[in-house]
Amino acid sequence: MQPSRPFYLGLPMWANQDWQGSLYARHAKTELLSDYAAVFSTVEGNTTFYSGAPKAETIAAWARQAPSDFRFCLKLPARVTHEQRLTRLDEAWCFLEAFTPLHDRLGPTMVQLPRDFGPDELPRLEALLAGWPAHLPCAVEVRHPLFFHKGEAEKRLNQLLITFGANRVMLDVRPVFSTPPNGHEGLAHAQQEKPKLPLHVLSTGNAPVIRFIGHIDKAINSRYFAPWISRINLWINQGKTPFLFVHTADNRASPQMARLLYNALNEKASLAPLAAFPGETQTSLF
Q: What 3-state DSSP class applies to 256?
């Protein structure tokens, strides 16, 4: 097995037809995960948030296609976090059990909580974290405003995460909200969908998770990412393993934006160079 990487870079998914001809070959249809994993080292599991664990044969296929040092950062299903509001933890454990073939390649499983999941429900989160399998990392994304006021509620949350070694997901939406949409449909949709919350930079576990929600303007993204470079480099030097997930407003340019940000980070962090995109390599041959 290859040694663990000190830093993981990924996108919100690996299947997107807009990436054919750039990240992927123009007519690529199958085995996209293999091509994706040749460039990026992790991926958000957004599909599991909406549809739960896939069939066993699908998970087995993922296990065949992903290299040993690749990391899946799945999302706990909305049925567990939003519908049941962490009151039926047996379903959470069944979800994790379904991914046993990937347990050696799971990054922090993300627990994205509802916007109205507030301080009064923290005992439910504590019960989840107390029962969480010790060999699997966990990350929690909160969206209730009281967890961003630097008051007692946020202190309780952060202490809870530190106690159980869970990572607080840092959702950076500053770029996408930095300008009005000005008629851009993708940007308008992103501003409607994403919560406009302040950014609190805090590592409560050993695998800091950053979800960077970018703008359509590369210069805006680069400006907002600049302070992250020193922080990510600091965490790497401290022995932590940061995870960075790069979104753009409509995700069409997410691979290119991720490469741009990675190269900026690499000037200071001295990481391995990012591999060429298979689709771009193919295009250059003709």
A: helix
Q: Model confidence over 221-244: pLDDT tens digits? A: 999 999 999 999 999 999 999 999
Burial group, residue 34, by CB count within 10 angstroms (0-12, 13-18, 19+): middle
Q: DSSP letter at 147?
A: G
Domain 8-284, what fold? TIM Barrel (3.20.20)
pTM: 0.94
Q: CA 149, 155, 161: angle at the middle one, nearest 5?
A: 120
Q: Where are the alpha helices (DSSP H) in 38-183?
A: 46-51, 56-65, 78, 89-98, 122-131, 152-164
Low-confidence ranges of the chain (pLDDT < 70): 1-5, 29, 281-286
Segments making up each domain of the chain, as ranges: 8-284
Give the burial class of 122: count Cβ atoms within 10 A of its Cβ; 0-12 exposed, 13-18 middle, 19 or more buried. middle
Longest dimension (CA), the chain: 61
Pick from 236, 261, 239: nearest CA to 248: 261
CA distance 203 to 219: 27
